[in-house]
Amino acid sequence: MIEVEDLSKYYGLTVGVKNLNFRVERGEVLGFLGPNGAGKTTTMKMLTCYLPPTSGTAKICGHDILEQPLEVRKRIGYLPEKTPLYLDMRVREYIEFVAHLKGVPKNILASDVDRALEQCGLGSVRNRTIGKLSKGYQQRVGIAQAILHDPDLLILDEPTLGLDPKQIIEIRQLIKNLGSERTVILSSHILPEVSQVCNRIIIINEGELVAVDTPDNLRNRLKKSSVINVKLADSEKSADAASFLSGIDGITLVKEGTAVKGSLAYILESRPDADLRREIARRLVEEGYPLLEIFSEELSLEDIFLQLVTEEAR
Ligand SMILES: Nc1ncnc2c1ncn2[C@@H]1O[C@H](COP(=O)(O)OP(=O)(O)OP(=O)(O)O)[C@@H](O)[C@H]1O
Ligand SMILES: [Mg+2]
Q: Is any ligand 1 atom within 6 A of the Cβ of residue 11?
């Protein structure tokens, strides 16, 4: 579906991206993950033919971005980082306008517009002015214009940026639904986000590709230990909890965490492949410790970056 070959972009002397090579298969939902300035938007602009590469190229459905940009654009729906919406227009009016621009034939225009609105959950706000919609709904309008011509490939640049948690969940679900029939690339700098929606992740940093893998493999590969948080009520019984926890088989380290009033927190480490939560909970309860909470800690994007970047430097 997508073949990227030695793709580079320099803005004068500034590196946008450097020698990117990757493939995306049909039907994949690929997460493009990287901190600010990593080169996510630059890559997406090149794949959508909005920006010419300095060197290298890419093929979308077998069509070269340099030689056949029109063929490429026909197959791509693009949600740019800053969605260019006409805030004075009504939702349906705007999508119709985009349909005219995209050259959707007159006889199917109305049904295509309605399908896009429906798929993005915009049916009920079709006659509202875009500027008066919430940010989440405005983002849906942006996605509706991207899927209007029913493209094989959707490229979404930070589709959930700036949304509240409820809207984030809704947009994620929308992307999942859209991804069941299409290939999707979306960028983000939030790891939990991409691991929930995507089946493969590309991590870029300072314009260079650092890792490509499934979310689970990435986490496992980078995990040097398993971290479990335990919270106990602050009582007499809890006084010797740290030494009790150290005595549980498989625990390699016990640290005291930040205690909140009325409770005590402990951070435990064990081997990466062991999940000791059940055993720890059972032992604590059996011994009568006042257990309030127990949960394992996922690696954050920051941890992964630090690990990847330091591994590279070695
Ligand atoms: N038009 C431009 N002119 C000069 N430099 C640019 C331009 N656009 C991007 N850059 C530089 O290229 C690098 C990659 O930027 P890019 O916008 O692709 O990153 P990004 O991963 O999308 O970041 P963000 O998470 O902030 O959106 C950055 O160093 C940026 O400053
Ligand atoms: Mg960007």
A: yes
